[in-house]
Amino acid sequence: MDKLLHSVYLDEAKCLGCTTCLKNCPTGAIRVRGGKARINESKCIDCGECIRICPHQAKLAKTDPLSKINDYKYKVAIPAPAVLGQFKTSYSIDRILSAIKALGFDEVVEVAYGAEIVGRALKYEYHAKRYPKPLISSACPAVVKLIQVRFPELTDNVCRLKSPMALTARLVRKRLREQTDYQNKDIGIFFITPCAAKATMVNNPLISEYDQYDHIDGAIAIKDIFSDVSGLLNDCNLQEGIHNSTPEAFSWAVSGGESEYLKNKNVLHVDGIQNVISVLEEIECGKLDGIEFFEGLACIGGCVGGCLTVENNYVAKMYIQERAKQIKQESIIHLSEEYVKNIYNTGMMHIKERILPRNPEPLDADINKAIEKMKQIEMLESKLPGLDCGSCGAPGCRALAEDIVTGKAKEIDCIFVLKDRILELSQLTNELLQVEHPTGKTSE
Amino acid sequence: MSYELAFEVERGDFETAGGASRKIKKTLQQLGISSKIIRKVSIAGYEGEMNLAIHSWGGTILLEVAETEIILTIQDSGPGIPDLHLAMTEGWSTAGVEARRMGFGAGMGLPNMDRNADHFEIESKVGNGTKILMKFFL
């Protein structure tokens, strides 16, 4: 797969240019041009809203095929906690993991393993006091990108601990290097992903958080392996005791799971991209100054609502919660506090690069010219009907006005403006027809 | 070249209040203002907007952007503040029950505006209303 900036893409053959996705894009990244819904790469945050909403399944996410694992000598699957929400609780976690392994992997390690460590390290990170309040979770890459693009003022608030996915990959790689003869390049680590945003993180090292030691070799969509795994559940070599996650750790799959690790703080967890936007707006203007930790997840219900999952998000959430209750009584390998603290202190959990704003492009680099353009936009907007119908291919009248001023659209893209022009023209035609021509005959 | 944007805020308009601040933020982003300054204007503007909704009989917010500065003027037609010194004290508030129930009225509004603006001026006369002028240097 090419290294790409985005996982969400358009299947041109399926797109009818129907404008459904236009208004549902939280960053206004889509325009219909030439009858197809094009995505503006610099604005897309990979939240997957368009994938969910498209009535023609024309919006897709680029992920890796299972066959890619054959490029490696030692194959490791690292399933997201949301995977457990896809199966009835009558199937034990060991059985689900064994079925995944039976797809052709040599080993399966839950990302919940890394989630437990990251979750417990949160309190150390919180008390490091380098952050403005509130500390904002970095768990959801779509929300992190949303902050970079739409709330650049809040990028300093974003937690700089690596995601459970990256940490899990790192710890697996480290162990294999130390305990086996495999070289780094022989080891293929594959994330079983519930969403497009994580797939982007895996496939774009330029914008991702990890370095070569926690390299992930591919992202495989839950929905692509679901039917094979289901088939193998009752028909695989059951390996008892391969799961090593706590109920708290796999509860990261649902909204509020991560916040549980900071439950003595004032935490706020919000799911669904529009809800996340509303709350970030309140945080931004200083309204929620009592909040100490903010967990925002782009999908409704949390990762169980990812656009690459199969089970309904509410049902999946119920399965996760049921599992958490069932497991409470059983013994689980708990990681010692020293172990977590040691990992934290090595610095390997921290993202090296700062999370920087990706400010939306201003109308012009020169403020005077930008002001001039802003005035033109407002003048144009006042002439448009204000219906935000989307027929022009932009999500609303304001967006069309902006596109016109920045040279990406024209006024008659608006069908109402076009109709007025036709009316003017027909009136003129009519007038001209009435004019008596010197040599012409008058009709009776 | 300068740019102006005006908003009216009605008394008791808690549900839609915040709309002006959001619009101001988006406008400033499009004009290429740095995010640090936008944050300060957003916080001050939001406080001003809330003050209009909670304490005033209604008023206006005027945003002016020029090459070197942003000016935010918040003006109402009453009732006016009897003791400005007290009103500028952190924690002091005359917010009503309804506003407090909605989480407002912590008495941080004016001090917060003062803190975020590079220049802060307030004039108030009982019966005439209040005018706040804030400048943010670019």
Automatic annotation (TrEMBL), chain A:
Record domain 4Fe-4S ferredoxin-type: where: 6-35, 36-64
Pfam families: Fe_hyd_lg_C, Fer4_10, FeS
Keywords on record: 4Fe-4S, Iron, Iron-sulfur, Metal-binding
Ranges for domain 4Fe-4S: 372-431
Protein's UniProt keywords contain Disulfide bond: no
Domain of life: Bacteria
This protein's record includes keyword Iron: yes
Coiled-coil ranges from the UniProt annotation: none
Molecular function (Gene Ontology), one example: metal ion binding
Stored InterPro entries: 4Fe-4S_dom, 4Fe4S_Fe-S-bd, 4Fe4S_Fe_S_CS, 4Fe4S_Ferredoxin_RnfB, Fe_hydrogenase, Fe_hydrogenase_lsu_C
Name of the molecule in the record: 4Fe-4S dicluster domain-containing protein
Species in which this protein is naturally found: Acetobacterium paludosum
Lineage: Bacteria, Bacillati, Bacillota, Clostridia, Eubacteriales
TrEMBL record, chain B:
Stored Pfam families: HATPase_c (PF02518)
Gene3D superfamilies found in the cross-reference section: Histidine kinase-like ATPase, C-terminal domain
Domain Histidine kinase/HSP90-like ATPase positions: 57-135
Position of the signal peptide: none
InterPro entries the record matches: HATPase_C_sf, HATPase_dom
Top-rank taxon, per record: Bacteria
Name listed for the protein in its UniProt record: Anti-sigma regulatory factor
Species of origin: Acetobacterium paludosum
